[in-house]
Amino acid sequence: MLELGPVFAGTTDLLRLVAVPVFAWAAWRDIRTRRVPNVTWLPLAVLGLLLLVWDGWHAFGIGGYDWQLFLVTTAISLGIVVPLSYAFWWMGGFGGADAKALMTIGILFPAFPTYYVETSVYPAVQTDVGVFSFTILTNAVLVAVAFPVALTAYNAARGRFAPAMLVGRVRHWSDLSTAHGRVMEDQEGFTRSGLDLDALRMYLRWRGLTLADLRDDPDRYRDPETLPDEPNPPTDGAVTVEGEAVSDGGESAAAEQIAQGEESTDNEDAESTTYDDPWGAAAFLDSIEGSAYGTTSEKLRDGLDTLVERDWVWVSPGVPFIVPIFLGLLVALVYGDLLFRLLELLGLV
Fold first, then answer.
1. Which residues lie in Basic and acidic residues bias regions (predicted)?
2. Does pTM top 0.85 for this prediction?
């Protein structure tokens, strides 16, 4: 069994390791719920600022090269990595939690830390510039690129060859209540802009129904007359940490009719009926504040039509970027800069 010796490092570098368990928790929570509380990042950012002042005072006292290196790494980390994270969020490339995580890293890890474990020094591979936050970012990007490769291999090993195999996986309809991502199928085939599963949960909670209810009697629920007189709060479509879909209770008018033993409309008659607002999709979107993750009434109707007909559908896993950020942090702390090492092997640096 491998046993590591004691870890030696400067006080500020040791204090920065508190970020590892925090980022691990944030990544786990983002996978489960797609929600990370804002309060997660504030203590780390404050700690980073305090350590930055501490390191700056120490480097200023030494002067010379140490002070210049401190100024350069801090300027790049705070002046490039932090604004770049905000820019990617503003353009829609990152989620809010992802951007805040990267901003926090920009404050907390401006320069490469140094850790001694027995006779070994970590990180092993350092860059010439020495901006550790940029190393974590590039590591995260490389890890994120590996996800589609792993997903394609996963689907190929199970004989699932389809256009969506690079970016999705097959899920049973019963798993969708606690899944995240988008449905990658509609009535015409595969799509990259299908129904968002958070939006689906919002709709179901608004009606006080489950997807199983819709599948049991889709012809009835397509009729907007079955919408509840007093809809339930749709919430934001979140899933709880325990893995159960958040429920606000309540029943729709149609559910009450079924509970009272009323017979549903004959299927042939229902299929021949044309409604102005099938599924009450437009009514739902009109009644909520804001938007349901960019969902349109047409997209909602098409998604519902697909989910009540098919037992298995392709779904994008929607892996949050904070997961590659956490893995990029771990790789950076132990190995160092993956991109710099790759460029060295190619003889480009």
1. 215-225
2. no
